[in-house]
Amino acid sequence: MTAAAPVLELGHPALRAVCAPVGPLDALAASERAQLDADAVRLQATLATFRAARGFGRAIAAPQIGVLRRMVAMDLGVAAYPDGGRGPLLLIDPELTWQSVETFTLWDDCMSFPWLLVRVRRHASVSLRFRDGDGVERAWERVPRALAELLQHELDHLDGVLALDRAEPFAPGLDAVIARSAFDADRARFRAQVDYAIGER
After folding, report:
1. Residue 72 forms beta bridges with which residues?
2. What is the pLDDT of residues 87-100, one digit of tens each?
3. Domains in the chain and their CATH numbers?
4. Annotation marks residue 149 as catalytic
5. Is-above-0.90 flag for pTM?
6. Fewest 10 Å CB contacts: which of 46, 123, 175, 184?
7. Which long-range contacts (CB under 8 A, 24 or more apart) does 56-61 make?
8. Are 119 and 107 in contact (CB under 8 A)?
9. Is the model's pLDDT at 200 over the cut of 70?
10. What is the C-alpha to C-alpha distance for residues 80 and 192, in angstroms, rounded to an integer?
């Protein structure tokens, strides 16, 4: 079984890197493809291990384990993907092809700073094009809010952008970045400051 990698934490320079495209899988040299496959397995193992330990985590971007390629490992658990199927999935060179005008706010979390929550604004829906781990072209059109916010978070990682960069306070004098412990101690107050909470539909 492949061992999980450490999740890089806030301050590590890899989290600010713009990742390189993977490109067509059949164009990779054998050694490159072997490394890519090993990185993908390690990325998925890291996601599973983090979720088992922390109780949250639906996806992780490759730079969060120091791999500077445009890949995201995802696992929505029992929830189905827009084009069917469930469980572990690799997104290679994912690209947003549309985003809604409508936006919403939420307290976002991140595996690279799990002790914080950040109030951010995201598009209510997006469309995505990517290749899966087998190199098959896939497209998800106008996905629901829960998946839309996740995809925006992960694709930001591929460009070296963190949720902290998108912090937006509810009102002057209120914090846009809070400790998770503060949120847990007064959930109702902080929930009233956003339109949506992760886990809602």
Report:
1. 61, 91
2. 999 999 999 999 99
3. 13-191 (3.90.45.10)
4. no
5. yes
6. 184
7. 56/109, 56/114, 56/198, 57/111, 58/150, 59/150, 59/153, 59/154, 60/7, 60/111, 60/154, 61/19, 61/154, 61/155, 61/157, 61/158
8. yes
9. no
10. 29
